[in-house]
Amino acid sequence: MRSIVAILSLFLIAQVVNSEFVKFDLVAKKFYKLSKVIKSPQLDFLLKITKDTNAIKKKLDKLPRKNVIDPKVAENIIYYVPEDLKFNGISAREILRGKVKSINDMEINTVPQLDAQICNKMAYEILDGDINKFYETWASSGYTDNSHLKKVEQNIGRMKTKFENWQKNFDKNMKEADIIRTTIKSMFSEKTAIVEAANGNAEKKIDALFEKILLKESELVGKLTNANEILRLYNEERLVWTEFIMGKRRTLTDNLLLTNH
């Protein structure tokens, strides 16, 4: 069975391949031809959030999607918790089962969905007919107002600085997410948990273990959510940068867009 990441990524790739819309790299290449100041690779910030996008996609697609704690294994451990033990009127065993369910739900549902969203956002392309038409005119005739070329050249540093901040934070969140994934894998051992539970105070020991894993899962979700938000902001902004570079937008903050040259 294909993973969620693979299915959604393949769908997006098919969507992009079948389109005839302008690509970010074409905008950069055209600008390099028009400018005597800005040359490759100075517009690489327009192309992708990080040079490791392909490696990240492959890694996320290959990740195993399975329960952190097998429910049957959990029952073998919960067995050591007194059946009649309750907290605020709720069975201690049911509380622990609920935590196992929360841990596994995040691992096999929430985390894969966030991973898939990251892959899709990294594969973002311009799917806007109006921008495509504007690009065709710009690519064939250049700027009608050469002062805009100079304006773009003067703002390259501003765009790059914004990009570098996003890139740094994206890489940081993805690396921290990798560390957390590895930590989660090493946190649970059925044999160790049973030995600990059998030695008394089972409910406290098991609850403490499940809480630690639950916290780590929440941290992982947080890092992946951060990465997704960075990609959302980056994709929105590089669309603005593209419009500005072509002259469709007079300034980086101009909301009045030209429909043609």
Quick synopsis:
The protein is mostly helical and about 260 residues long.
Distance between the termini: 50 Å
As a percent range, the share of helical residues equals: over 70%
Question: Which shape, going by the Cα principal axes?
Answer: rod-shaped
% residues in beta strands:
under 5%
In sequence order, what are the helices and strands, one letter per element?
HHHHEEHHHHH
Low-confidence stretches: 10-19
The strand order across the widest sheet is 1-2
Averaged pLDDT: 91
Number of DSSP-assigned strands: 2
Briefly note the structural class of the backbone: mainly alpha
- Give a short account of the largest sheet: 2 strands, antiparallel
Radius of gyration: 25 Å
What's the structural domain tally?
1
Helix count, per DSSP? Answer: 9
Protein described:
70% of the residues lie in helices and 2% in strands. It has one domain. A hairpin with a 2-residue loop joins strand 1 and strand 2. The protein has 261 residues and is mainly α. It is rod-shaped. The chain has nine helices and two strands; from the N terminus they run H-H-H-H-E-E-H-H-H-H-H.
List keywords for this structure.
mainly alpha, 2% strand, 261 residues, two-stranded antiparallel sheet
List the helices and strands and how they pair.
Blueprint: H1 4-17, H2 24-34, H3 53-62, H4 71-78, E1 86-87, E2 90-91, H5 92-122, H6 129-141, H7 146-187, H8 190-198, H9 202-246
Antiparallel strand pairs: 1-2
